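$ run holo --ligand "protoporphyrin IX containing FE" --emit C-alpha cells
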Amino acid sequence: MKVWDGFVRVAHWTLASSVILAWATHEGGGRWHEWIGYVALATAILRILWGFAGSRYARFAQFVYAPKTTLAYAGSVLKGLEPRYIGHNPLGGWMVVVLLLTVTASGFTGWLFTTDRFWGEEWLEELHGALSNALLPLVALHLAGVIFTSWKHRENLVRAMFTGKKRDPSATDVS
Ligand code: HEM
Ligand code: HEM
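-- output --
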C-alpha cells in the first residue's frame, strides 16, 4: 500500500543529502556550506509544515504518540514483541521530531552567525557547532532504528522511502 507521499520522499532525501554535505563542507564556513545549510534548513521547515497539512502518514498527529504509549512500545521492543507499524513507530516518530528540530536549530544558528547583529559571537558559533555535532549520534541512532526494524519485520524500509510503498497491513499490524 502507498504510505509515504511524494513530498515526504523528496524532502527526506534532500534533507539527508544536504545535512551530510553541510557536514562535509563545514570547515571554516564558506559559501558552499552556507547555501547547503540553507537547503537543509528550508527542507526541515517545509517538512514540519507538511506535518500539519500532508497526507495521512505525513502528519505528526498520526505518528507522534503519548509518552506512555512510546514507553510501552520500547518495552515491547526489548521483549521482541513489538507490532509492525505502517507509519512511523512510536520511537521512530519521536526521532523524526528530534531530527527535524535539531536540523532547524542548526541551520537557524548558522544563519544567525552570518548576520551583522551576531557576526563573530563565539557562543553562537559554539552553539551552531554543538547542535550540528548532536546530529551525528542522532543520525546514527536513526539508521540503527531503520536497520533493526527492517530486519525485524522483514521489510526494506529504505526502499519504501524511495517508492512510498509498504506491505499491506496484517491483522496484528498498527495502521
Ligand atoms: C543524514 C541525515 C538524515 C536525516 C536528517 C534524516 C531524517 C529523517 C526524517 C526527518 C525522517 C522522517 C520522514 C518523514 O516522515 O518525513 C526519516 C525517515 C527515514 N529515514 Fe532518514 N534521515 C537521514 C538519513 C537517512 C539515511 C542515510 C537513510 C538510509 C539509507 C535513512 C532512511 C530513512 C528511512 C527508511 C525512514 C523511514 C523510517 C520509517 O519507516 O519509519 N535516513 N529520516
Ligand atoms: C543543518 C545544517 C548545518 C549543519 C549540519 C552545519 C554544520 C556545521 C559545523 C559542524 C560547523 C563547525 C562548527 C565548529 O567549528 O565548531 C559549522 C560551521 C559554520 N557554519 Fe554551519 N551547518 C549548517 C548550516 C549552516 C548555515 C545555514 C549557515 C549560514 C548561512 C552556516 C554557517 C556556518 C559558518 C559561518 C560556520 C563557520 C564558523 C567558523 O568560522 O568557524 N551553517 N557548521
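-- notes --
The first helix runs from residue 6 to 24.
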